[in-house]
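Record format v2
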Amino acid sequence: MSTIASVAALAGVGVGTVSRVLNDSTAVSGSTRMRVLEAIEALEFEPSAAARALSTGRTCTVGVLAPFFTEPSVVERLRGVTRRLASSGYQVTLFDVERPEQGDAVFSTLAVKGRIDGLLVVSLPPTGTQLERLHGAGIPVVLVDRRLEGTPGVFSDDEAGGRLATQHLLDLGHERIAFVGDTENGPFGFTSSEARRAGYEAALQAAGLEPRPELARLGPHRRDAARAAAAELLGLSVPPTAVFAASDHQALGVLEAAAMAGVQVPERLSVVGFDDIELARYCGLTTVAQPLEASGARGAELLLEALAGGAPRSHELRLDLQVRSTTASPAGDGTNAVESRSMRTRLLNGMMREPKQFEGER
Amino acid sequence: MSTIASVAALAGVGVGTVSRVLNDSTAVSGSTRMRVLEAIEALEFEPSAAARALSTGRTCTVGVLAPFFTEPSVVERLRGVTRRLASSGYQVTLFDVERPEQGDAVFSTLAVKGRIDGLLVVSLPPTGTQLERLHGAGIPVVLVDRRLEGTPGVFSDDEAGGRLATQHLLDLGHERIAFVGDTENGPFGFTSSEARRAGYEAALQAAGLEPRPELARLGPHRRDAARAAAAELLGLSVPPTAVFAASDHQALGVLEAAAMAGVQVPERLSVVGFDDIELARYCGLTTVAQPLEASGARGAELLLEALAGGAPRSHELRLDLQVRSTTASPAGDGTNAVESRSMRTRLLNGMMREPKQFEGER
DNA sequence: TGCTTGGATGGAACCGCTTCCACGGAGGAG
DNA sequence: CTCCTCCGTGGAAGCGGTTCCATCCAAGCA
């Protein structure tokens, strides 16, 4: 491959001039510029990103660190990130954290110097030391789906979301409301389930109901675990009439358990999820929606601002209750009851009503 | 940040020695190595990837060019890529092509020199010129979901898949089988729909049936377009009893149309898709499955081999018919009829039966 | 004892770009 | 006409590594 020197030689100019043409920094006379451009064309010259990065100290790349495929919601966030970054001149390097142990290791060994200019961390909790290292390397960090004092981020109020979901069930007349969520202090260090549960308990107490320990089931963030937990709940002598799951993922497990136990939803059991992943829309799951794609886009935007030298800022996302067809008043009541529909109807209604489409257009 | 020179100074050795310790290339005496390591520790030294890349000519990064979010299947492929690459020492840089126009532009302006060592192209059709440019830059390319003479790739036999799907419908006793697929020569240059249609026609002809033009509907690769096409088909004086859609995405559109027209699936209409995206599993869609994640992993593997200097190889993926609950014999026949089940049952059966889970474990 | 050999080490050259500094020449002001 | 600007330009210095070559020293051998 040709270098800037060969271009300079062919055009009969100095390397400085070629560089100036490439970056149109200072004025270069029209005729010179033309000659240089012709030489570039003739040699099919393409500047080396590595050399440029070394020289300027900027890589024009941002890193995105996330447990991408453990959670469909993260993919939606990533979409927001790439959309926002597409027009920014920055490229994206992915750091996928697949297993929790990895999380820490990746963080600590993350080779960033000379590789990325900024880092977006999705859902994972960086430690102070790690943040300091990045800060020391002059790499701004923005958190997505994580609130941390002193670090800019995009987050939502999980506790408020928990209250929102629970209040919806209370408003429908439910009193025995169960919770299915993550084991707390899990390997990845996610805390959203915990906060959502706090909101759940707060809403119950505000309504004069005492949270009952036997109605709160915590387990690994897997659908089968949620299904098992829900099965236990349905097997209680006085089973709950509603379940608030800490994520849509787990809510699907609850729906499975209900189906297996022959418990009709929403007639005999109401289910509320959290996140509003694509599947929730298809399944007609009532859920607390957070703008996933927008969170990624907003995070990217904050990072770009920081990269441009702006002051670090944070952003709180709005949560919205999306009432679909898995919630209704407790059996026998009839208030607000949603007619029982086949899943297919539900599915199709969902698909046709929701303006947001997961799959785009070719 | 500290440099290799400061480390050398602190350890009282030359820069060469520090470099040797970093790369444990040639032997360094135990005591020297120790001193260097201590200095590295003390200074929190981290080598600059840019400098290293410039010096060695290798970036330890591979690029992945794909229309990621236009198609859920691509995300599954990406997962395979990152899984395979995780342990390889290579990082991943994403080049997302969101709009077709972009495709060409991205390809042509793709700044790769000094940025990536190899490129994985998913679904998109690179032109000869573009491949030559990459080849000239010494960057191996591997295609995923694309077959191209002279370029290594991972692909499946779309035509055979089309035959497979159609044969399944023929075996069930269908004769009026429609096809819903992509407009040919579309903006992205995808050709899989065309090949699948060819397989569809071949299967019909092999069964002694002449493909009927009015039963083949081509349109943009969007669900609403597929829905409209299916609606037209169902409105024919003699409507088809089965539809083969060129992708699951479009098959879902067909299901929508059937629901809107009050046509029961599979009793009055059988539907077969293609790809086996996650949603297909949830909806009980009969489909031609291709191992999406494996295709990405295999592509990554081929690229790694090429990067290691191996001879370029290609790999053909096996296609499998996944019979679920959207296909049955034509009405009145009864052979092989699948009992009509609610969508929820279908959904849950699908979820519980399929070993493959989209969402992993935390 | 003197010479060879080879392992450990220091350091210069180089990777390809940006940037700064110095310089030449044209044009304007006095 | 002379001097001063200022624009356009060439080229060297550096960015921070790797690598090769020269050097040094100790051990082995005659």
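Residues 54 and 114 of chain A are 7 Å apart (CA to CA).
The two ends of chain A are 35 Å apart (CA to CA).
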